[in-house]
Amino acid sequence: MAKKQVLVACGAGIATSTVVNGAIEEMAKENNLSVDLVQIKISEVGGYVDTADLLVTTAMTQKDYPFPVINARSFLTGIGTEDTKKEILTALQK
């Protein structure tokens, strides 16, 4: 399976995206998935439209992108985290 570029974005690209980034990194290792994690600000997503395979974000976004966008605020609240993990894994295994 080809390496997937995963954008992990939040408002500032520092705090909440770090939490999500770590969770995805762990999931990738557990499932032997090859991912290139790119931690960015939500405002920087447009610069990766041609290379990204998935956007996982804790920020609000109304834009349409040519790749799946997964809301990961559950990683911050702890509610629905397993469902979000399944959604991310499904997207990465395609």
Give the percentage of residues in beta strands: 15-25%
How many strands in all?
A: 4
**Count of the domains:** 1
CATH homologous superfamily?
Response regulator
Q: Which fold does the CATH topology refer to?
A: Rossmann fold
**Helix coverage percent:** 25-40%
What's the quick description here?
The chain has 94 residues and is α/β, with parallel strands linked by helices. Helices cover 33% and strands 22% of the residues.
Layout of strands and helices, then pairs:
Elements: E1 4-10, H1 16-30, E2 35-41, E3 54-57, E4 69-71, H2 74-77, H3 81-92
Mind explaining what this structure looks like?
This protein has a single domain (4-93), classed as 3-Layer(aba) Sandwich (Rossmann fold). With 94 residues, it is an alpha/beta fold. Helix content is 33%, strand content 22%. The protein has a four-stranded parallel sheet with strand order 2-1-3-4, with helices on one face. The model has no long low-confidence stretch (mean pLDDT 92).
